[in-house]
């Protein structure tokens, strides 16, 4: 067992944890933050996406002990109190979910993606910071899968928020 300190959604947490515990399991089982979903548990679906120090990451692949001292933001921490994050509002307004299982990961990934500058694999000029187009959003969000196929509305919600 090892003691770690995390800042989770703005609150300091000191925990004694097994070094083999994933960040996902720590969030869900120890802290009760069940918004972060366990999809594939192999880093392939993105349902567990959280922000670690502002950068998106698959919580199922991150060991909790490796996050010692980090600031973690889950879907529960995106809102400012009772005021939803603009992405959360846009997802509702654009009907960007169906079953909702992937939505927390999609929201965290989109929040991280909007803060990431620079080109992607579909950017024609790799020396520029391209405008956010549907193609750019689809490429940048490609690590988050939606089994229901709500991609059109997810992209629209992200573009609406980016404006």
From TrEMBL:
InterPro entries: 2Fe-2S-bd (IPR002888), 2Fe-2S-bd_dom_sf (IPR036884), 2Fe-2S_ferredoxin-like_sf (IPR036010), 2Fe-2S_ferredoxin-type (IPR001041), 2Fe2S_fd_BS (IPR006058), Aldehyde_Oxdr_Iron-Sulfur (IPR052914), Beta-grasp_dom_sf (IPR012675)
Transmembrane segments: none
Presence of keyword Oxidoreductase: yes
Keywords: Iron, Metal-binding, Oxidoreductase
Domain (2Fe-2S ferredoxin-type): residue spans on this chain: 2-78
Source organism superkingdom: Bacteria
Protein name: (2Fe-2S)-binding protein
Claim: Ligase is one of the keywords in the record: no
